[in-house]
Specification:
mainly alpha; 21 helices; about 80% helix; globular
Length: about 500
């Protein structure tokens, strides 16, 4: 029964992953494209502005997305239209207000971000992107709650394809420069808004249920400062690098940081499936045992992805296509941060797993404190490490922030929603990872890291995982699955 539940979670993760991976891969392909058409200074400018967009995305939602996900899955106040209209109209109102303030405050914002004056006009694109993205969040969550995964995937894919096509057309054909990045995003966000409009029209009611709004705000508002802190962890390193060094270094860091996209994909697609999964299974008799298994298998999969990408990312990005490397050669000096970035995303995924207890027990008050600690760790370490070891310092600051958050979430949630996680198994997984990492860096230092040695290290990691982590329960499950498939094929 438990393995059937895990199989369903894996299946849901895969469905959401189709659109997430497909879309993100297309977006990822823009990174090498940008590195060939923009210099590091231009890359630094739009990376800094997108970090700003990320922070303001949280401001416009102020935790209402988390509240809607929590209460719409099991309505206790009002009818279905109330549970959609109240958070949607609330987000719409705040988003309109914030977009207006952004436009009126453009001079202050750009001076704060150290962005040259000739790019001030981009603030209009930024305001539009933020508004359209914010009012699309609640409808997208509705699709997830209603198990409309195919429609969700389709709309996300259309958004990404629109963005990619316009980027290439406007930059290559019309020579627009970095303005094309923001205009393309604006049109892609508009396409999502229009596609979701029928869902909105069907569910909207021009009225806010204030009793419901009060309940939503009580649960969701702690996610607002938490969201700001989380976005600071993800994006504050760019402006700090720019402040301590220059835009060129910020651009170099941003381009290589984006190579961590594959771990981010894994975490994102897992999160899409995980949140409805634990809310729907929270009352099951073996729920905690089930959630414990989820952490083990997530960690196992995450470490496997980490090892493969860390071993071979350097070889992949230097493949030449039509005489050009995938990543422009002037950006290759930053590749050493990629394993650190991948590790950070993996611990972020573990944070997501630990927050199940917070949702189930409605203890969202803890979230802002944990993320504030993570943000503080990140900012302090950025200012300390960047002057010493450059962009590696920024990557390590983010990794350590997520690691600290994961430990704090674990200890806090164990107080009110205790789960007996398979700590010995998890320790063995990380021990296997550490052993491979030590050998990797020893060979790297001795200049012995050939393709053959990389494959041997991957094989060693797989062997260690099999020796340490495949137990009797897993073997029985695999044996039964194989037996069923054999009977089916007979």
């Amino acid at each position: 029964m438990m393995f059937d539940k895990l199989k369903q979670l894996t299946k849901d993760t895969g469905i959401y992953g189709i659109s997430t991976i497909g879309g993100r891969v297309l977006t990822f392909l823009l990174v090498p494209f940008y590195t060939h058409v923009f210099d590091t200074r231009q890359f630094g400018i739009f990376s800094t502005l997108y970090s700003f967009i990320g922070v303001l995305n949280v401001l416009m939602l102020y935790g209402m997305d988390a509240s809607y996900l929590k209460f719409a899955s099991n309505p206790v106040i009002g009818d279905e239209k109330d549970n959609f209209s109240t958070p949607y109209l609330s987000v719409l109102s705040v988003s309109l207000l914030v977009s207006g303030v952004i436009i009126l405050s453009k001079t202050f914002i750009y001076s704060l971000l150290d962005v040259p004056t000739e790019y001030y006009y981009l603030v209009y694109y930024i305001a539009g992107i933020l508004l359209l993205d914010a009012v699309s969040v609640i409808p997208f969550i509705t699709l997830r709650l209603e198990h409309k995964a195919k429609k969700f995937a389709l709309f996300k894919t259309i958004n990404i394809l629109t963005n990619v096509f316009l980027n290439i057309f406007l930059i290559v054909k019309l020579k627009w420069g970095i303005e094309a990045v923001f205009f393309s995003n604006l049109i892609a966000s508009l396409s999502s808004f229009l596609l979701l409009s029928p869902e909105v029209i069907k569910k909207i009611r021009a009225k806010i249920n204030f009793e419901l709004l009060k309940r939503l705000l009580k649960f969701g508002l702690p996610y607002f400062p938490a969201g700001i802190a989380a976005m600071l962890i993800q994006g504050v390193d760019r402006p700090i690098i720019n402040h301590l060094t220059n835009l060129e270094t910020a651009g170099l860091y941003s381009a290589n940081y984006k190579l961590g996209i594959f771990m981010m994909l894994f975490v994102n697609m897992f999160q899409y499936a995980w949140q409805p999964f634990f809310l729907q299974n929270a009352e099951e008799k073996n729920a905690k045992e089930l959630f414990s298994k989820v952490l083990t298998y997530f960690t196992l999969a995450g470490c496997f992805i980490l090892v493969i990408l860390s071993l071979f990312i350097n070889d992949v990005v230097q493949i030449k296509i039509f005489g050009h490397t995938i990543i422009q050669e002037s950006y290759l000096s930053g590749l050493n941060i990629v394993p650190v970035v991948l590790s950070g995303y993996m611990f972020l995924g573990m944070c997501t797993i630990f927050t199940a207890g917070i949702f189930i027990k409605e203890k969202s008050i803890y979230v802002p404190f944990v993320t504030a600690i993570g943000a503080t760790v990140n900012i302090v370490l950025n200012f300390w490490l960047i002057p010493i070891i450059g962009i590696m310092g920024a990557a390590l600051a983010t990794l350590l922030a997520y690691l600290v958050m994961a430990f704090i979430y674990f200890f806090i949630t164990q107080r009110f929603y205790k789960i007996d996680y398979e700590l010995i198994k998890l320790g063995k997984i990380f021990l296997s990872l550490t052993a491979v990492a030590v050998i990797y860096y020893l060979q790297y230092a001795g200049n012995h890291l050939t393709i053959l040695n990389k494959f041997l290290l991957l094989l060693l990691f797989i062997i260690l995982l099999l020796i340490f982590n495949v137990g009797r329960e897993e073997l029985i499950f695999l044996k039964n699955r194989f037996a069923k498939r054999k009977v089916k094929n007979a």
